[in-house]
């Protein structure tokens, strides 16, 4: 995938010039965060955008989805329903969760909205875009995520929504609404890798339903190892904080 290739190319080129390009979610305190949003749409065999409808729905469940097809709504519902269960694939490192904080225009809840850049899923559709450009921007993944895993999770969740004919579980975020009070705006996504892995590996997880036990147990195990290494590490912050005070 292009994203993986460009990361390696950038790093290789940077090293030749004595610099180390960084794709950590939050490389330094006070610095901007690195995101890895992924855009997706479906196209029919005859080349038509499967997420749009020919004429607006006169009585949609929410005005924001008036131009979104039934299949698109089910795809969106699948994404929203399974998002919390897939967090280790979207945010795979300890550092990932230092990006997913309130008040920084980063998604922290199960949320969506028309052209909403603080929601987990941004809907791009008429009247703000051309019908042929109708798609979803999944804004949870970061620059440190494996894009193959991210795309697989998105397709698996969306297809699950279509197969089960799921309905959109939460209303859209109003325009201008930020995430400063995320607890009042829907299910909070995991705040740490530890929390994300615990959800990812539980018996009734959506990830097990769409990916199977073998993958979930293996990948969950790699993330548990990552957590163990973190818990054993002594950070620079700890040394600076405590070396003279305790």
Descriptive overview:
The longest helix is centred in the C-terminal third of the chain and has 20 residues, at 213-232. The N and C termini lie far apart (49 Å). Helices cover 37% and strands 6% of the residues. With 246 residues, the protein is mainly α. It is globular. The chain has a 4-stranded mixed β-sheet with strand order 1-4-3-2, covered by helices on one side. It has helices spanning 2-16, 70-82, 87-90, 147-164, 193-200, 206-211, 213-232, 236-242, and strands at residues 38-40, 112-114, 121-124, 135-138. This is Glutamine synthetase. It comes from Aspergillus pseudocaelatus. Keywords: Ligase. Belongs to the glutamine synthetase family. Residues 1-246 form the GS catalytic domain.
Features:
mainly alpha, single chain, Gln_synth/guanido_kin_cat_dom, Glutamine synthetase, 6% strand, ligase
Helix fraction by DSSP (H/I, runs of at least 4): 25-40%
Q: Which blocks of ≥5 consecutive residues have pLDDT under 50?
A: none
In round numbers, the mean pLDDT is: 89
Task: Look at the helices and sheets and give the structural class.
Answer: mainly alpha
